Amino acid sequence: MPTLFVVGGGLFGSLAAAWARSKGVEALVFDAGLEGAASPAAAGLFSESWAGRKLRQHHERALPLLERLYGIRHVSLHHDDGRRETLLFVPPAAILEPTPVRERVTAVGDGWLEAGGHRYEGWVYVAAGVWCEQFCPDVSVHSKAGASFAFAGEREGRIRRFASGRQAILFVRDPETTYFSDGTAERVYTPDHDRQTLARAAALGLTGEPVRRCWGRRPYAPGGPVFRKMGRRTWLATGGRKVGTIMGASFARQLVEDELRQ
Ligand SMILES: Cc1cc2nc3c(=O)[nH]c(=O)nc-3n(C[C@H](O)[C@H](O)[C@H](O)COP(=O)(O)OP(=O)(O)OC[C@H]3O[C@@H](n4cnc5c(N)ncnc54)[C@H](O)[C@@H]3O)c2cc1C
Question: What's the pTM value of the predicted model, to 2 decimals?
Answer without folding.
Answer: 0.98
